[in-house]
Amino acid sequence: MLDAARFYEKRNEGLGWRFLRAVGDAETRIARNPRTFPLLEGEFRRCIVRGFPYSLLFRFDDDGVLVVAVANQRRRPGYWRRRVRRHA
Question: What CATH number does the domain located at 2-87 have?
Fold first, then answer.
């Protein structure tokens, strides 16, 4: 996430901060009602980051929400699955 923000900031001053705010907005939407987001695979859901080609991939239970990736939708599809196996 921070690498992406740096990339955007280098391209256009202020764009990195807009990206981070959009990610924060996505987190807020997830926290409000995580069940509204579509299932991606198994128990994992996806929330699109508005205005950027990124998604937050997450799961939730009674203990809270676990975001496993802030994933670029155009690169390395499915890379986040390795993270899930390490934290299972």
Answer: 3.30.2310.20
